Amino acid sequence: MQASEQVPSIQIGEPGVTVEAGDHICAFYPTLAERDEILLPYLSEGMLAGEKCIAVLDTDDLDGIRQAVSGQGLPSPKDGNQLELRRSRNAYLANGSFETEAMLKFWEDHVGAAVAEGFPFARVAGEMTWALSNLPGVDQLVGYEAKLNRLLPRYPQVVLCLYELERFDGEVLVDVLKTHPKVLLGGMVLDNPYYLEPEEFLASR
Questions:
Q1: Where are the beta strands (DSSP E) in 63-202?
Q2: Buried b or exposed e, range 55-89, using 16+ CB within 10 angstroms
Q3: Cα 162 to chain center, whole Å?
Q4: Strand partners, 126
Q5: Gyration radius from the chain CA atoms
Q6: Within 10 Å of residue 176's Cβ, how many Cβ atoms?
Q7: Range 18-69+79-204 has CATH code 3.20.20.390
Q8: Where are the beta strands (DSSP E) in the chain?
Q9: DSSP 26-55
Q10: pTM of the model
Q11: CB burial class (10 A; 0-12, 13-18, 19+) of residue 170?
């Protein structure tokens, strides 16, 4: 099932803001409170719409996130697996390192399974501060982000990548912009004029 076969736009929790199936969005936040102002409505909108919601977060307090999403006034989900929360160390850093192809397979498997289970759409979020660790492979971050764009059209999904602004250096953030077609800024999702197609970006590395 291709992304283009689905409803053309979805709500992401910002009033009046919609995104297209297949969008790959970066969002920058200065504090954890502001991260939650982006993340929680994004997930709760997906829950209300009956979508599969998958978030990989760089925190040990997944129960707190789950409770916060549930506290958005949501009815009980019809499927107990609708909201899937994972820690970065069990996904991005499984086996103590980051491997681009393994993580792309992770998303392919999980989003593909959601579609097979009958969910009409997958709403994905990834908190990217795991890349600031000293573990092997974290230098593959922006190459991974570029290659992720090739996966997105295969399934009806949207991917939101969350970057803590003060912790990433400017050079990395420039490359992050080059690998995301859309950016969430000031409550709006904007086309990113700095975006490069995967082939062009990877050829420049």
A1: 83-87, 122-127, 157-164, 182-185, 188-191
A2: bbbbeeeeeebeeebbeeeeeeeeeeebbebbbbb
A3: 7
A4: 56, 161
A5: 16
A6: 21
A7: no
A8: 9-11, 18-20, 24-29, 52-57, 83-87, 122-127, 157-164, 182-185, 188-191
A9: EEEESSHHHHHHHHHHHHHHHHHTT-EEEE
A10: 0.90
A11: exposed
Structure tokens that stand for 190 in this block: 């904007």
Which letter does DSSP use for residue 179 in this model? T
**Where are the chain's structural domains?**
18-69+79-204
Which two structure tokens, joined as six digits, stand for 199? 């082939």
What SS3 state is found at 160?
strand
Rounded Cα gap, residues 114 and 105, in angstroms: 14
Structure tokens at 5: 């076969």
Q: What is the pLDDT of residues 68-121, one digit of tens each?
A: 887 765 655 555 789 999 999 999 999 999 999 999 999 999 999 999 999 999
